[in-house]
Amino acid sequence: MSRLWSLGFALALATAVLSPVAAQDYPNRAVKIIVPFGAGGPADNFARILAQHLQETLKQPFVVETRPGAGSFIGTSEVAKAAPDGYTLLMMSNTHTVNETLRPNRPFNLMRDFVPVAPVNYSDLIMVVHPSVPANNLKEFLALLKAKKGELNYASSGLGTPYHMAGELFKAMSGTDIVHVPHKASGDARTAVIGGHVQMMIDAISTTAPTVQGGQLRALGTTGKTRSDLLPDVPTIAEAGVPGYEATIWLGLMAPAGTPQPVVDKLNAEVNKVLRRPETKEAWGKQGVVPIILSPTEFDKYLRGDIDKWAKLIQTAGIKAQ
């Protein structure tokens, strides 16, 4: 028994000694970032931007792979099962913190099966309708929803996504009834609204502003506390008819549980270097996107707080996974 104990102690000591060395050498091969959402959405776009910067600074390929489906479960489950060595990362969003309550039968537990690496950014959303909808502003749309209770639809990129929850929050706070139509990816949902198959969507302002400016969609309101610099003539939903309404989409990186802390810390430091660059802030600001800079410990606290926030809303409003 004493020999086994000695062997175990020696192994633990060796691991403790080698971890910093491993972190110094990390990465020595390609790193994969799994995006559990569709191509062309905010998570995919910013994962690729971040991967390019990390590849330049860490001198190894950072490869982005989209694994959409099952409301983010397919790609997320793949990362949960990956080796905890820092070579497989998850680009996650507040979809994941929502699903901790909304979808209790998940094949993973966010705070058990993953470790926080770093947040990336957040942005406001925007409510848009197809031009054929007979409503030029939010008050007219609210009146239309009340006149046609349960007859109109809104699109999202899937259950538990920020677009879904923003729609449910709008329903709860406005006292209206509009039917949720989930899609596999945000691009699919956006296409459905542009094509007039679904009447409304609350989408990321960074990807939707061009469709508004091009006349493909009509903007009724943005979801932040203040108006967006991208579309300053569009009022917030709060000022346009639903006081107190606010919703955002945010993104972050996590790794499989058991990933060595020195590797997590190194990734966090490198991500934060990218986010602190003036050119990053300037370029993202033009898209209505704000970098979030936190340590792994701070991000852990942020995640737990967001899980609690959405749990209260889901339980209070009686929101169910459809």
The dominant shape is globular
Number of helices: 13
CATH class of the largest domain: Alpha Beta
Strand content: 15-25%
SSE order in H/E notation? HEHEHEHHEHEHEHEHEHEHHEH
Radius of gyration: 21 Å
Characterize the largest beta sheet: strand count, sense, and whether it forms a barrel: 10 strands, mixed
Mean pLDDT: 91
CATH homologous superfamily placement of the largest domain: Bordetella uptake gene, domain 1
* Low-pLDDT sequence parts: 1-11, 13-18
- Cα(first) to Cα(last) distance is 55 Å
Task: Count the domains.
Answer: 2
Helix fraction? 40-55%
In CATH, the topology of the largest domain is named D-Maltodextrin-Binding Protein, domain 2
Counted beta strands: 10
Provide the structure class: alpha/beta
CATH-scheme architecture of the largest domain:
3-Layer(aba) Sandwich
Describe this protein's structure:
- Helix content is 48%, strand content 19%.
- The protein is α/β, with parallel strands linked by helices and 322 residues long.
- The protein folds into two domains: 29-122 and 250-317, Bordetella uptake gene, domain 1 (D-Maltodextrin-Binding Protein, domain 2, 3-Layer(aba) Sandwich), CATH 3.40.190; 124-240, 3-Layer(aba) Sandwich (D-Maltodextrin-Binding Protein, domain 2).
- Strands 1, 2, 3, 4, 5, 6, 7, 8, 9 and 10 form a ten-stranded mixed β-sheet that branches.
- Strand 5, helix 7 (162-174) and strand 6 form a beta-alpha-beta unit.
- The termini are far apart.
